[in-house]
């Protein structure tokens, strides 16, 4: 049976599944691939009257402008600092959480704790930032009230210390997402063959040894894949949360590529520069692509797991 006939038979037999698949494919084409045509304005001096196709080409002018500006080192440095800090502290926690939850003998207790840990994920970014500001308010917040009760004096404003921005950004995000992130590892742990644990128990292995020798090797491919995908977003920090927590005092530590692109493209005091903002975003995406390729290659060399 040739390939064309086999493909036709598959389409005829499973046409309902392909109809369902058609919806996300069309969505991705419209909202992910077609907009890529707009990347050309990174190499043009965009003019609204002439449009995207009629604007004059300027080559690498906008890239050279960004690389030569004082914001290049600051935005790239802050983006990398926040991403690596989040990777070092936030990436292992979902794995540890899943391993600990998997040790519960009571499925009801496991489900209850997992639900509690997952709930913060559904809090919006605006509400989350408001909670952080309220809790750590030096006067009326929980931190301020406790400090006054214990010391008899008001605490200094923690948000006035610029470097504290990174800690508030990271740990509020860890609290919000580590329970949700553990779900995929719990799903991987559910596929571990119980006979392996039984054999390890017969051999005298403790519960901790079974975690090290049975559970972790079983989810190692999932860990590697998630790490590769995490590196693919290492230069992509969403601007919403950063922008909401940003102020004039912490700008030196909080100005990242996404907020800088937003300010240049949409809120630069009426002087928006779409071409410049697009060039910065294009550079950001290119770095992410290179990192994914490099980390995937390293993962393929070190282990048997990679994306391709």
Provide an overview of this structure.
Helix content is 70%, strand content 0%. The chain is an all-alpha fold. The protein has one domain (64-302): MetI-like fold (Orthogonal Bundle). Helix 10 (164-189) packs across helix 12 and helix 13 packs across helix 15. The protein is globular. The model has no long low-confidence stretch (mean pLDDT 87).
Short summary of the structure?
The protein has 308 residues and is mainly α. 70% of the residues lie in helices and 0% in strands.
Features:
MetI-like fold, 308 residues, single chain, 16 helices
Write the layout of secondary structure elements.
Layout: H1 3-13, H2 15-33, H3 51-54, H4 61-68, H5 70-90, H6 92-102, H7 107-118, H8 125-135, H9 142-151, H10 164-189, H11 194-202, H12 207-231, H13 239-245, H14 251-254, H15 257-265, H16 274-302
Helix pairs in contact: 4-16, 5-10, 6-10, 7-10, 10-12, 12-16, 13-15, 15-16
